[in-house]
Amino acid sequence: MSPGKKVKSPIIEECVINYECRVVHKNDVIPDRLVDEIRQRAYRQGDFHRIYFGEILVVYADIDAKEKLA
What we know:
single chain, two-stranded antiparallel ribbon, 2 helices
């Protein structure tokens, strides 16, 4: 790992593509507003998520990323 250039999170060198983002908004999932089927299937233990929205600040990709991801 190496340090990010725009944010605190590190760059994982083994990854073909890395994104550095900043959080622009976050929402907690509200259980009572979920469809029952989704709540039963995805959140059986009551471990509701927080959803983050981000802005991509910079992207790093291997020179041969297109071939590696094909």
